[in-house]
Design goal:
This protein has 508 residues and is an alpha/beta fold. The chain is 32% helix and 22% strand. The protein contains eleven helices and 20 strands. The strands form five sheets. An eight-stranded parallel β-barrel has the order 1-14-15-16-17-18-19-20. The protein has a six-stranded antiparallel β-barrel with strand order 2-5-6-9-10-13. Strands 3-4 form a two-stranded antiparallel sheet.
Length: 508
């Protein structure tokens, strides 16, 4: 027996085994980081989008008059529309034969009949220093006063508007709109206090649902929604359907749970905690997506905008607040192995959000993610209407960084009359070229963070939808980071991956 050789052999075996374990561990880590994302968005859950679940709004009193509703008023006597002269900053007139932006008044709901009204240039409707003439000069809603909109009992398209002085608006002439009518006429067309109302804009987001129900009813309504819309069984379904991740849209107010700013209500953070527990249980990666930033980064309901205006990024405070939100979320979930990526903001819209402002925020947001999660991916969302590669300069100095692009064969007139074959060809040709153009060897990874197997084609067969889905899966599969379908659940079947998979329209 040659003991030294035996010891050497044993040591050699141990070393080889150790190297194998370390290498294999590194390999698993690298494979985990390089594995392409095949995800679904949990949209409409923690950030409300009313079009996805309209029933959530059913019991709101006077639900046609929610925050952000755009109203136009035509004088019954003059036959012309009320208008914020110059878009705001001066008097209100009644001299427009047609209506557009300057003639649209956006609601800030106080209760089901009382409102602040905001005009095109963001001033609020009010009365002048004499307390009679209608003006829009103040950017402070509280100092402008409250207006009550009263519908005619048998015709809701005809209204009277009670001003803060207790009297009613009337259009005396094209250049004189005053608040000095008793409003006690018979709703005839010769009554200058009667206006024909048209609703031209509607918003159904988190702000609308919580402010619409109010502080008494909203907490239960939202808790029931959070507890039932997405449940643990959904995560099991996702994990067994060929997907490996979820993209979870969240709102900025969740970082202030359990006492978020009004009108938001507490409870969404508990739902998000559950999501991370379920993701860990079913071995799913989580892309945490800040879908709604304070003030709204795009004006749409899915960013919880109040009235359609973009207020995010107008002040350093909104940026600092958003960075704090990202830090809160990252620190909270950094130790959960499912945290795979943090998306700093979803779909900021150009030109309302300047590139310089967005760059400043992305640099600050990246730093706080790295502070708590050094190896998590940081996702930068392209601006809506921005240039495809405009984020590449800021991304160049970052590691594990991803640029998120969203591709829909919708929302543009070019798709309105496309046939089945034209839609499929557009994916295989145009979208493929777009994706290839932004995929570079040394650039950021690319993530198709939203896509859907819905289109403008009417009368399409199940096979048509299958082919359309297959074309997208093939092209988006080339994205260097991966893709995420919008969304898991939706009352509109083709928008729902749950429905599409269960009914054989999408085969993963």
């Amino acid at each position: 027996m040659k003991t030294p050789n035996t010891k050497n052999q044993l040591l050699g075996i141990i070393c080889v085994f150790a190297i194998f374990v370390i290498s294999n561990g590194r390999s698993r880590t690298m494979n985990s980081n390089n594995q392409k994302i095949r995800a679904v968005n949990l949209g409409g859950w923690l950030v409300t989008e009313g079009w996805m679940k309209p029933s959530l709004f059913d019991s709101i009193p006077n639900k046609d008059f929610l925050d952000g509703a755009g109203l136009q008023f035509k004088s019954a006597t003059i036959g012309k529309f009320l208008c914020a002269e110059l878009g705001g900053g001066t008097i209100i007139v009644a001299n427009r034969t047609s209506a557009s932006g300057w003639e649209t008044f956006r609601l800030w709901r106080i209760d089901e009949t009382n409102f602040h009204l905001r005009v095109f240039n963001k001033e609020f409707l009010g009365l002048d220093s004499n307390g009679i003439n209608l003006v829009a000069v103040s950017t402070n809603s509280e100092t402008s006063g409250i207006f009550e909109i009263i519908k005619k009992s048998d015709d809701s398209s005809h209204v009277r508007i009670k001003a803060p002085n207790g009297l009613f608006l009337q259009a005396k002439t094209e250049d004189s709109v005053t608040a000095d009518s008793n409003g006690d006429g018979q709703w005839r067309d010769d009554d200058p206090s009667v206006f024909e109302m048209t609703k031209v804009e509607t918003m159904r987001g988190e702000y609308q649902v919580t402010n619409g129900y109010g502080p008494t009813k909203a907490p239960k309504i939202m808790k029931d929604h959070w507890d039932t819309f997405i449940v643990e069984a959904d995560f099991k379904f996702i994990a067994t359907s060929g997907l490996n991740a979820v993209r979870i849209p969240v709102g900025w107010w969740t970082a202030s749970d359990p006492t978020p700013p009004k009108p938001y209500v507490g409870g969404s953070l508990h739902a998000l905690d559950n999501a991370f527990l379920w993701a860990k249980k079913y071995n799913l990666k989580v892309i945490l997506d800040l879908h709604a930033a304070p003030g709204s980064q795009n004006g749409y309901e899915h960013s919880s905008g109040r009235d359609g205006f973009i207020e995010w990024g107008l002040t350093d405070e909104t940026i600092r607040q958003t960075v704090d939100v990202i830090e809160f979320f990252t620190a909270r979930y950094a130790k959960n192995p499912s945290l795979y990526a943090v998306e700093l903001i979803n779909e900021p819209r150009a030109p309302g959000v300047p590139l310089s402002v967005l760059t400043k925020y992305y640099e600050a947001g990246y730093k706080v993610v790295r502070k708590h999660a050094p190896n998590a991916f940081v996702v930068l969302s392209n601006r809506l209407s921005g240039e495809p590669k405009e984020l590449f300069p800021v991304a160049s100095g970052m590691k594990h960084v991803v640029v998120d692009v969203h591709y829909y064969n919708l929302f543009s007139d070019i798709f309105n009359d496309m046939t089945v074959e034209q839609n499929i060809d557009f994916i295989q040709t145009n979208r493929s070229a777009e994706l290839q153009a932004i995929t570079t060897a040394n650039g950021p990874r690319i993530f198709v963070g939203e896509w859907v197997a819905e289109w403008q084609v009417r009368g399409a067969t199940k096979q048509d939808f299958q082919r359309f889905s297959e074309a997208q899966l093939e092209v988006w599969g080339r994205a260097s980071f991966g893709w995420a379908y919008w969304s898991l659940k939706n009352v509109n079947n083709h928008w729902s991956m749950d429905w599409m998979i269960k009914n054989g329209y999408i085969n993963l």
